[in-house]
């Protein structure tokens, strides 16, 4: 491979990871979201930060319980941000962007939608009402919890058993699907007679059939143990019935939204809406997908639309540093430094995000509209106009999965050109990033500081720990978008 710049190499690496996460394959039978936001750089976490996802708000002491609430506050606040799509994507085929928030919150916009929406009101039978409630309660449940500080008993909305089982089985299926796509992309980018290229071809030709069998078994487990069919039938029924009468459905949404609010006493009585990752023990799982990048991958993934992205977006993928709290001027190291003998390996996983108080299915329904109070307050902005670029809505998209990496190793014979920059930046209290990866420095998330540290093993940069590097997102369709045949008198409140 000719000498290439560090920023170009990292950009090509991100392009390959994007293809692995979002790639379509006939063997993968579920739709894959294709809009990815990359953090620049990633956010370091420790496995202990997700203890509440697996165990809930429990502990052997009040301090442990408070810490569980703090963990939930940090994660919920992070995934309550609305990803901005105003800068657009690389191309229609490369739907990825650098993460930036719109300044609004999912919970805030959703609250306003529930407050200002006018829904269709047509009678349902008692049987349909009962069935609708039963199905909604299978997806999310309301549980009683006692606040350890005030002894107040509160009703909290959490994922139902059906949702937990469905999402855990889906996560297992996605992990194997990612592994299959990684093997396929590795084989397609293999060229030449070097040992790594030959290994990739053999790996695909000899092992793909076994991974496909595991994928088929995971799909069967998703159906039998994850209630895949039942979950999808329930959602289809809810959508069908609610199209005729959203009154009871909306009341249920409002109640569960209200009960999703939690107070974290350790964060200055901060209120947040409960959000978790499923399965909760993902951080300790051994089922992460192994990912590698070599010089052959650069030739395959360094396409014009990808390499031109950084310049168009005003960002660089080389090493950069900024203040410890992401404030102050950003300094980027020389992107014209060449990189020889470059390769990278790490493990990654995509974990579904669960917000039991939030039902995005509402935005696809065509039996509601917004009243004049919304239009007066928000200058006639829709919830979303459905456009991926230049969307004028308040809730243009939301994250559905979180992308984590761990055990990151980057090899290059030219690290000496950058090591002084890294050392000086971190010593001055800054954070150093390389593309979507956090190399070193402290990241504060309230009461807790997480340190992303690194060391060298010969020509290999080893970045310790686990970090969040991006999210997979859904774009909200045009919303509201009431059916053409509906009249003002069909909605609650009439004309």
Task: Describe the model.
The protein has 495 residues and is an alpha+beta fold. The protein has one domain (4-490). Helix content is 37%, strand content 27%. The protein is built from 14 helices and 23 strands. It has helices at residues 6-22, 51-55, 62-78, 106-116, 126-139, 161-188, 195-224, 228-242, 247-259, 295-301, 304-307, 309-313, 372-377, 416-427; strands at 4-5, 35-45, 81-83, 96-98, 101-105, 117-119, 140-146, 153-159, 261-264, 270-273, 276-277, 289-293, 319-323, 331-332, 338-339, 343-354, 368-370, 397-411, 430-434, 437-444, 449-452, 454-457, 460-475. The strands form 7 sheets. Strands 2, 4, 11, 12, 16, 18, 22 and 23 form an 8-stranded mixed β-sheet that branches. Strands 14-13-19-20-21 form a 5-stranded antiparallel β-sheet. The protein has a two-stranded antiparallel sheet with strand order 1-15. A hairpin with a 6-residue loop joins strand 7 and strand 8. Helix 6 packs antiparallel against helix 7. The chain starts with a strand and ends in a 20-residue tail after the last strand. Mean pLDDT is 83; it is low at 304-314. Residues 475-495 are annotated as: Disordered.
């Amino acid at each position: 491979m000719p000498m290439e710049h560090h920023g170009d190499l990292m950009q090509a690496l991100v392009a390959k990871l994007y293809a692995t996460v979002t790639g379509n394959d006939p063997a993968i039978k579920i739709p894959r979201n294709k809009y990815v936001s990359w953090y620049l750089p990633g956010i370091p976490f420790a496995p202990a930060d997700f203890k509440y996802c697996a165990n809930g708000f429990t502990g052997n002491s009040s301090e442990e319980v408070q810490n569980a609430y703090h963990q939930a506050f940090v994660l919920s606040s992070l995934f309550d941000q609305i990803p901005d799509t105003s800068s657009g994507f690389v191309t229609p085929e490369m739907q990825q962007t650098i993460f930036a928030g719109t300044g609004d919150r999912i919970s805030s916009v959703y609250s306003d939608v529930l407050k200002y929406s006018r829904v269709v009101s047509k009678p349902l039978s008692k049987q349909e009402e009962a069935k609708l409630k039963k199905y909604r309660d299978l997806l999310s449940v309301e549980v009683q919890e006692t606040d350890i500080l005030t002894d107040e008993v509160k009703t909290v909305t959490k994922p139902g058993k059906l949702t937990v089982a469905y999402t855990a089985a889906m996560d297992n299926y996605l992990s194997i699907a990612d592994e299959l796509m990684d093997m396929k992309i590795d084989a397609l980018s293999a060229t030449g007679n070097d040992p790594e290229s030959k290994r990739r071809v053999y790996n695909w030709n000899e092992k793909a059939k076994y991974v496909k069998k595991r994928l088929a078994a995971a799909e069967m487990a998703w159906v039998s143990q994850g209630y895949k069919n039942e979950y999808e039938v329930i959602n289809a029924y809810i959508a069908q019935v609610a199209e005729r009468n959203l009154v009871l459905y909306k009341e249920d949404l409002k109640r569960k939204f209200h009960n999703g609010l939690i107070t974290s006493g350790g964060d200055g009585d901060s209120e947040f809406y409960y959000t978790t990752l499923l399965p909760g023990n993902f951080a300790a799982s051994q089922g992460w997908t192994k990912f590698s990048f070599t010089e052959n991958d650069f030739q395959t993934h360094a396409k014009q639309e990808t390499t031109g992205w950084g310049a168009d977006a005003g960002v660089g993928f080389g090493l950069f540093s900024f203040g410890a709290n992401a404030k102050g001027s950003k300094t980027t190291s020389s992107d014209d430094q060449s990189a020889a003998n470059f390769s990278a390996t790490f493990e990654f996983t995509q974990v579904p995000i669960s917000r039991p108080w939030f039902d995005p299915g509402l935005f696809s329904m065509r039996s509601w509209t917004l009243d004049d109070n919304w239009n007066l307050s928000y200058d006639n902005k829709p919830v979303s106009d459905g456009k991926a670029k230049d969307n004028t809505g308040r809730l243009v998209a939301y994250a559905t999965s979180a992308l984590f990496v761990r055990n990151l190793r980057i090899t290059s014979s030219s690290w000496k050109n950058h090591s002084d920059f890294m050392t000086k930046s971190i010593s001055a209290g800054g954070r150093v990033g390389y593309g979507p990866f956090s190399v070193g420095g402290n990241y504060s998330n309230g009461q807790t500081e997480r340190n992303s540290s690194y060391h060298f093993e010969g020509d290999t940069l080893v970045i310790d720990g686990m970090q969040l590097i991006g999210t997979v997102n859904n774009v909200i369709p045009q919303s509201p978008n009431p059916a053409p045949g509906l009249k003002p008198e069909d909605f609650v409140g009439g004309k």
